[in-house]
Amino acid sequence: MTWSLFTCENPDFAVRSIPDDVLFRVRRAALDNSEVFRWYPYISWWHNSKKVLGDMFICCDQLSNETLSLDEPVQVLSALLQLLHYHPVPIIEVQPVTISIDSEDEDVNDTPSFNRERFMTRVPSYDYKTVIPLPVLQPTLFDLADKYGLSIDIFRALCSHLLAHAPTHPLRVYGFAASFECHHQRCRKARPSPSVIEENSSPADQRFGIDAEKEMEKEMRKVASKASQFLEPVGSYPMEEVLDAIPDVRALHRVVRLQHLRVKVLRDALNESEIFPKGYGTCLSHRENTMDCWDRQRKALAGKIDSGTDVAGEMELFVDTLAQCKTCHKAGVAAVEMLAYVCYRLLLQVQHAAWLA
């Protein structure tokens, strides 16, 4: 899909860019994906000395005018028409290559290994040829979706493409998603609810209106929540970058609070971890020495934790030093695996609580 040049098959209508005086041949049925074009009670015109309120296309029909002129530059208008005629396609996720280990080459029972990736924030990999570039998404396409009231189906597709950029641009994605939510809440409170919409509502209207806007806010909260998991500690970003990406105070406070809670639960989970919990799996030969080493490593790590620290991964480095004793090593692997699970569950609870606040 190209965002700079629009064409379609079987056109039956025309839309003109006023600034550039460029005419696009379009399909009316496709423009039905916009609430503005489909039904917009705030647009009115005069016909036969009467003020007409309702469908924008009625104006074109009554005045025998098959061209709709919009005050949009040609590139922006082309992008809008692309969205309306050809919904963004789903992004393609690249499956990671997995390497199986032959049990004949390595006895996993003798050297137990811990795969903490099961409990880490998963960083998906995409075929970026299928992902809409971030500068095109934001602000251009999302501004068009907001301005022209595009359907919830198109909006969901745009959100999926936005989320694909979260691992590489977490601050920008988070800031935009969180600020978009606040913007829509203000717009919805300020917008009247004319009775003409209620009188003409139909099942198809579920793609638009208040319910659709609530769904959009829900989608953006999901994007912001997932993007926040990839953020570095806010203090590590330049102030100008933070202010530019997160202009809303509530959005900034939410992520600062989230990162504070993440540090707290990670530190608490680490301080409560034991290598021989309740004496289970104790090595009689090295018990005291192993417990002392675990405690020293735990205390040293506790003072360096930030919101993105892989606590289990750091403690796993210590477990590698226990390889000389199978009993101690097995206990260390089990302790780290339990620590990873506890951190994973606690971080999920923190994430959920932060976005309910």
- Rg from C-alpha positions? 28 Å
- What is the number of helices? 14
Assembly level: single chain
Average pLDDT confidence is 78
* Total domain modules: 3
Biggest sheet statistics? 3 strands, mixed
H/E order of the elements?
Answer: EEHHEEHEHHHHHHHHHHH
The strand line-up of the biggest sheet is 2-1-5
Helical proportion, percent range: 40-55%
Query: How far do the termini sit from each other?
Result: 40 Å
Q: Output the structural class.
A: mainly alpha
The total beta strand count reads: 5
Q: Note the overall shape.
A: elongated
Measured by DSSP, the beta-strand proportion falls in 5-15%
Low-confidence stretches: 40-54, 58-64, 97-113, 188-204
Descriptors:
mainly alpha; 3 domains; two-stranded antiparallel sheet; 52% helix
Structural features, described:
The protein is mostly helical and 357 residues long. It folds into 3 domains: 65 residues, no CATH class; 119 residues; 98 residues, no CATH class. Helix content is 52%, strand content 6%. It has 14 helices and 5 strands. Strands 2-1-5 form a 3-stranded mixed β-sheet. Strands 3-4 form a two-stranded antiparallel ribbon. A hairpin with a 2-residue loop joins strand 3 and strand 4. Helix 4 crosses helix 5 and helix 13 packs antiparallel against helix 14. The longest helix has 31 residues. About 16% of the residues have low confidence.
Helices and strands in order, then pairings?
Elements (H helix, E strand, L loop, with lengths): L12 E5 L4 E5 L1 H4 L3 H4 L5 E4 L2 E4 L2 H7 L4 E4 L3 H12 L48 H14 L4 H12 L6 H21 L4 H5 L9 H20 L10 H7 L3 H24 L14 H16 L8 H9 L6 H31 L1
Parallel strand pairs: 1-5
Antiparallel strand pairs: 1-2, 3-4
Helix pairs in contact: 4-5, 5-6, 6-9, 7-9, 11-14, 12-13, 13-14
